Task: structure prediction
Amino acid sequence: MSVSLCLSVYLSVSVSVSVSLYYESANPPTNTHTHTHPPLSPLRHPLPAAPTTAAASVEKYINNDSTHGVRHYKVIVVDKNTIQVGSGPTTSSYRTVKLLRSRVPEELAWRENGVDILFETTGAFMTTKDMARHDVDYVILSAPPKDLNTTPMFVYGVNDRDYNGEAIISAASCTTNCIAPFLAAANQIAGGIRDANFITVHAATSSQSIVDEAHDSKRTNRSIFNNIIPHTT
Result:
């Protein structure tokens, strides 16, 4: 049996998939794993804002979004490192947000500001050794780790039930989160996958140049608005 499918997800990521399946038995396998996840400590405060964001410009930044449009939050600048964000008539319900600025994890006062769970999205810390520099209880990496034999990787709806309380994990890539649930379902229904290939069509990312530039990689030195050269995501 051959299946062709196109998946699209919100962040302008689309994955075109061609999969060949084969039946191994009349009764497709089922997931009987009943492991329950250990409880995580709740966040006591909102996560810090982007480290390079100036407090005075946050209100315009969060209220005028290129994707989500106009919102109406009120931002009160307490000091150069602290803001309060809310939308009610009184400030009693406003959330306090600390602005931390450093490229050195040891200099970021995560625990001091009540942070237990950190989402590592900078792309600068891609191994358990590097992510362990963050002074928090749990770190979730938003990309595939560079030490796959050390940092476990989980995709929700695919293998998240295998999570066993690890302090540092990867939530895989946007491409993997798009394709893996379909492949897992296809594998379970058909009883196996003989071969598969897919192509990701991705929107512009922050690491790509708006205009042409000199770069060692000929796949990334052209303007992202005009470049359709295949590249890793």
